[in-house]
Write a structure and sequence with these properties.
Largest sheet: 7 strands, mixed
Mean pLDDT: 91
Strand content: 15-25%
Number of domains: 1
Helix content: 25-40%
Order of helices and strands: HHHEHEHEEHEHHEE
Low-confidence stretches: none
CATH topology: Rossmann fold
Structural class: alpha/beta
Strand order of the largest sheet: 3-2-1-4-5-7-6
Number of strands: 7
Length: 232
């Protein structure tokens, strides 16, 4: 199980993926295209998740998929496992579907789902990227328990989250998450950041191997990549 990444995607890859988010007409709004290029060039999330999932072909459920960038990054890196993304923000699902169609992504699906109301049925690997801090501790526990139960033998749970470690980065992460909510990019503001010791204890109790790696990159966030695997 390989985890961690210190750099974001290269400029050529970022441009290639971002092109799928261009407007249908040359005079259309290019804000989403600009956002995708900037995020892929600055955020080490996607190389980190690619490294964590490489060598595992179990179907992947992406809880909180947003506009579907993970699907693009996986396919660009040659990872072809079946992918399904769900997100509470129904506005982002058509954007994800359109970009996936533009890119010709295969075996990819997106759906609007409120995880507080129901968890999708799934067996395989699970990604939970930048989600846990936006729900209550009780909801975090429910999501994690459901995700762990979904893991097939040899499948992996990949989490990117800020952690509650009292650092300056943790305080910066909270401020930026609050700002993202105020400008309505995020559908919810931060509620609680997971405790790393509690996560380790949960994985140990479930019999999962696990690894924690800082995933700061060139960002100010206190982001960590957490990977747990069910033995084959």
């Amino acid at each position: 199980m390989t985890v961690g990444a210190t750099s974001a995607l290269d400029a050529a890859t970022a441009r290639r993926i971002a092109s799928s988010f261009l407007p249908a007409r040359w005079y259309g709004n290019r804000a989403l295209w600009c956002y995708v290029r900037a995020k892929l060039r600055c955020d080490p999330l996607y190389p980190g998740v690619i490294a964590a999932l490489r060598g595992c072909d179990a179907p992947l459920l992406d809880l909180g998929c947003g506009i579907g960038l993970l699907a693009h990054a996986l396919r660009d890196a040659g990872l072809a496992m079946p992918y399904r993304g769900v997100d509470i923000d129904a506005r982002k699902i058509p954007q994800a579907q359109r970009a996936a169609a533009n890119a010709g992504l295969r075996d990819v699906a997106f759906e609007a789902v409120d995880l507080s109301a129901r968890m999708p049925a799934h067996q395989g690997s699970v990604a939970i990227l930048d989600v846990l801090q936006f729900v209550s501790p009780q909801a975090q526990a429910a999501i994690l328990d459901a995700a762990v139960a979904m893991l097939a033998p040899g499948a992996r749970l990949v989490i990117r989250t800020g952690l509650d470690d009292g650092s300056a980065r943790a305080r910066t992460t909270r401020r930026i998450d609050v700002f993202s909510r105020k400008v309505r990019w995020m559908n919810a503001g931060p509620q609680a950041y997971p405790d790393p010791d509690a996560l380790r204890a949960r994985f140990d109790a479930a019999g999962l191997s696990h690894a924690f790696s800082p995933l700061y990159g060139r960002t100010p966030f206190n982001n960590w990549l957490v990977v747990a695997e069910r033995p084959a």
